[in-house]
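Ticket #4471: structure export looks truncated?
Reporter: QA, pipeline team
Priority: medium

Steps to reproduce: submit the single chain below to the structure queue and open the exported record.
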Amino acid sequence: MDLINQYLILFILAATPWIELLLVIPAGIGMGLNPFFVALVTFLGNAIPVFVIVYGYKHWQKWRESKVKKIPPKNSKRRQRAMNIWNKYGLPGLAFLGPLLTGIHLATIIALAFKPGKKDLLAWMNLSLLIWTIGMTIVSFYGIEGIKSLVS
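Actual output as written to the record:
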């Protein structure tokens, strides 16, 4: 498989809810790809859907209201954890804990339910993604290098 296809697959996986950067970065680095480009592609794969979610939310909400009867929302464990984080830490807490607890895409949707400003929401979510991407890249790179040195 050529290099561009490998990065394209990483991008698609990063954009997929619940797979996201916590799995994609170690996989990409483990495949021997350049850590900088793995981080960049993974960040973009996570960030672009966040923009789509934020700017498409009102359109989806209007469409949903016209097509679907009012059904009380489910109280899943993930949603309840996210609600507790929102109540305790607000948007910054949900943004920084979202990739770990619910995934950044679901965290963005949950945050939208609280009606924060779009600019604030995008700023916090993307700052969180940037920090998580850098951290996961460093941990994955040095972790894999450490394992390689132990094995060889």
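Status: closed, not a bug. The export was complete when the record was re-opened. Leaving a note from the reviewer for reference: The chain has a mean pLDDT of 89.
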